[in-house]
Amino acid sequence: MAPPPVGALRDLLHQHHHDLPDTDPERILALVSSGRTAGADTDELTRLAIAAAAGLTAEEPGYARLAARLLAGRIADETTGQGIDSFSDSVAAAYAEGLLDPGFAGFVATHAATLDALVDHAGDDAFEYFGLRTLHDRYLLRHPRSRAVLERPQHFWLRVATGLSDTVEQAGELYRLMSRLAYLPSSPTLFNAGARHQQLSSCFLVDSPRDELDSIYDRYTQVARLSKFAGGIGISWSRVRSRGSLIRGTNGRSNGIVPWLRTLDASVAAVNQGGRRKGAACVYLDTWHADIEEFLELKDNTGDEARRTHNLNLANWVPDEFMRRVEADADWSLFDPKEVPELVDLWGAEFDAAYRAAEAAGRAVRTLPARTLYGRMMRTLAQTGNGWMTFKDAANRTCNQVGAGGGVVHHSNLCTEILEVTSDDETAVCTLGSVNLAAHLVDGGVDFAQLATTVRLAVGALDRAIDRNWFPTEQAATAHRRWRPLGLGVMGLADVFAALRLPFDSPEALALSTRIAEEVALAAYDASADLAAERGAHPAYPLTRAAGGLDAASRAEDAARADRSARESASPATPSASPTTAGPTASPSATPTRKATPQPKPTPTRTAKPKPSWVIPMKGAEITSCYGQRWGTLHAGIDFAMPAGTPVRAAFGGTVEKAGDVGDGYGISVVVNHGNGYLTHYAHLSTAKVGVGEKVGAGETLGLEGSTGDSTGPHLHFEVHQGQMWNQIDPAPFLRARGIDVGC
Predict the structure, then answer these.
(1) DSSP states of 434-499
(2) In the beta sheet, which residues pair with residue 232?
(3) For residues 223 and 266, what is the distance between their CA atoms, to the nearest angstrom?
(4) How many whole angstroms separate alpha carbon 689 and alpha carbon 224?
(5) Of these residues, 316, 386, 396, 413, which one is catalytic?
(6) What letter would DSSP give residue 122?
(7) Which of these, 422, 526, 529, lies nearest to 483 by C-alpha position?
(8) pLDDT tens string 219-239
(9) Residue 630: what pLDDT?
(10) Of 153, 354, 525, 579, whose CB has the highest number of CB atoms within 10 Å?
(11) Is 417 labeled as catalytic in the residue annotation?
């Protein structure tokens, strides 16, 4: 007769095998018998059986389900052995060990009976082995000393759902979604929901350190703190001077960015997301940076190991100007950011003008064929899988935050799925979740009604996560509460195509994918609009492109498309080409919505005949007055007709030099000289006062129709009104930085 543990294991295997006809319990038993020790107990035999079943998954996928069932049973035995029989028991045990937030534990204790009744351990059968093994190894709460798990998979799901909910009803809805794997929050949320430090966000975009020692070491500290609590890091290094640059304080020469990135590499390896998984960081570098070639070698498997960073990921932050020169087989110039600091914060036509002006002024460190550098990028990408191509101008044209003074997108994150503005004071953050499309298949199709319900519940949970979030750095807290960004993705599209027998490249697959994306987007916007109606818009909403409305967004999108078409039809750019335009042409993303928001609702229709967007060229620019009243006017020296409603983009913004009331209610103005008069449109400031150092810009629409008939051409005049006093912005520094002689 077989020893009792083997007999029990045989019964267990046959119990789990009942609906898996292609698995063979006796084969598992044979493998267990060949690997067991003489005194093996039930726990050892179960571990051997799990390993044996998992090893047969490549032969028969059903073994993955069998191994998962065995592992789920082992987890249940482990928790029961510690006296944990319910969800509230699990929370009490974890709280007693100092793992959970007191408020969360108190909520569970108050509603223990109701929450315990929500748990359905049959949900464990949704797992296959790899998923459940990952959950067991990385996500389930463990006793600090014994390392025994303190929760079963369904307790884990309910902990996360409760941690993201205000009521038991919300927790129940979210738990049922997660239990059937229809929606999953990101890993930091799964790690930390309900914990003492509820760091629930996935991605952090840290702006490049300033070109100074204190700032660089401050960035190391920020990255370490973010990584400690499971954040993935995207960071730019484009502001730091290049190798060979003069250090005036010591009269020495800089070693460039590589030694700094070596230190960052070691920090990422050391601070490994709380010991649960490897640290993850991606460094972005502008393509014009003089250290770009050394940057591309950081992941090479050959060469000097002292100049390699094997833990960091690398990405190129590529302007359109570079790609135009690659296409034209023209030269590309590399610069030391200490000499051209303005390039980091410019994009689009404004970047093109400043970059070409710097070339013309002879400020480049060196020049090389654009295709040579592009080839080096492609080689790095092919050999290391790193050095991702991310496009700076497209990012800024489409990011909703790059609106009315919102800021500039300087880079993306590790996975390049988020685009947000960053600055020295703001670390962009995104709280993420993913909808499992495969869990929404019914009767040979996608259940779009259920999909919309899932999306709405997910948006609500993500929004609540922002309020519960604990931020490792003040810069992250400032940005996240100001912008309140959340990201909702999908997974399982390939599973949907396979289940519906649709070839991936078929028109039917394309149509289904398009509809899924539309339904998800519209349901998310709908839920967001409801939240705004209930709680008010997020603080930075007036700065977004969405705040301009659908009609404005459509016109700007048309203008950007026309601008790109004009560039493509023009002759290829060369290093000696003159500057083309004075400001970026924005292309806001239209935001479809089904419900009214607290803001006035625009008419969501395009104009029948889109109007052109005029961008005032910089060529021949001069300042007519630099002192006295500081009018700061710009004469561009061209003639053209401008219809009413034409958007005019400003060549520059500026910083207020005196504080005061906006007494006449006008704020920033854009004036276009027309014959003997002016066509004027005033942009209203959002506040009644203007503070010293407040940054302002311009980009408005003409209220009258006419042509620029005088000899000076368009006359742009930027000012901030303060009662009867005008506090003008001097554009001279802006133009000098671009190599244009302002004459004073």
Answers:
(1) EEEGGGGEETTEE-HHHHHHHHHHHHHHHHHHHHH---SSHHHHHHHHHH--EEEEEE-HHHHHHH
(2) 203
(3) 12
(4) 39
(5) 413
(6) G
(7) 422
(8) 999 999 998 887 889 999 999
(9) 30
(10) 153
(11) yes
**Most confident of the ranges 451-460, 469-478, 601-610, 657-666:** 451-460
DSSP readout, 543-572? GSSGGGHHHHHHHHHHHHHHHHHHHHHSPP
DSSP 697: -
Nearest one of 672, 654, 686, 664 to 715, comparing CA atoms? 672
> If we measure between CA atoms, which residue out of 268, 292, 258, 256 comes closest to residue 220?
268
Among the residue ranges 62-71, 151-160, 281-290, 594-603, the one predicted with the least confidence is 594-603
Burial class of residue 509 (count of CB atoms within 10 Å of its CB; 0-12, 13-18, 19+) = middle
Residue 624, phi then psi, degrees to nearest 5: -85, -25
**What are the C-alpha distances in Å from 238 to residues 207, 252, 290, 313?**
9, 21, 10, 15
Active-site residue 413, yes or no?
yes
* Residue 344: how many other CB atoms lie within 10 Å: 20
Torsion angle of C-alpha atoms 477, 479, 482, 486, degrees rounded to 10? -90
Q: Taking a C-beta distance cutoff of 8 angstroms, is the pair 624, 633 a contact?
A: yes
Task: Find the catalytic residue in 26, 59, 417, 474.
Answer: 417
Distances, alpha carbon 625 to alpha carbons 632, 715, 729, in Å:
6, 13, 11
How far apart are the C-alpha atoms of 89 and 79, rounded to whole Å?
Answer: 10
305 is catalytic: no
Distances (CA, A) of 304 to 156, 254, 316, 437, 690: 46, 19, 22, 47, 54
- Report which secondary-structure segment, H or E, holds 379: helix 370-384
Q: Tell me the average pLDDT across 353-360.
A: 96
Token pair recorded at residue 705:
């129709």
Is the pLDDT assigned to residue 401 strictly greater than 50?
Answer: yes
647 and 613 Cβ atoms separated by less than 8 Å: yes
Angle, CA of 402, 406 and 411, to the nearest 5°: 55
- Residue 381, Cα to own-chain centre: how many angstroms? 22
Q: Decide if pLDDT at 341 tops 50.
A: yes
Separation CA 580–CA 564 (nearest Å): 13
At 485, the pLDDT band (50, 70, 90 cuts) reads very high
List, in order, residues 6 or more apart from 334 with CB less than 8 Å away: 242, 288, 289, 290, 292, 364, 365, 366, 367, 368
DSSP at 138: I
E strands along 531-642, which residues? 614-615, 633-635, 641-642
pLDDT (mean) for 110-124: 97
Task: Band the pLDDT of 610: cuts 50, 70, 90.
Answer: very low
Burial class (CB in 10 A: 0-12, 13-18, 19+), 599: middle
Cβ proximity of 473 and 226 under 8 Å: yes
The pTM of the full predicted model, rounded to 2 decimals, is 0.72
Indicate the domain borders of the chain: 4-181, 428-544, 616-736
- The token duo for 285 is 């570098």
Among candidate residues 44, 293, 415, 657, the one labeled active-site is: 415
Place of tokens 């998800």: 520
Half-sphere exposure of 347 (CA within 13 A, CB side): 23
Residues 618, 194: Cα–Cα separation, whole Å: 56
Q: Residue 274 in 3-state DSSP?
A: helix
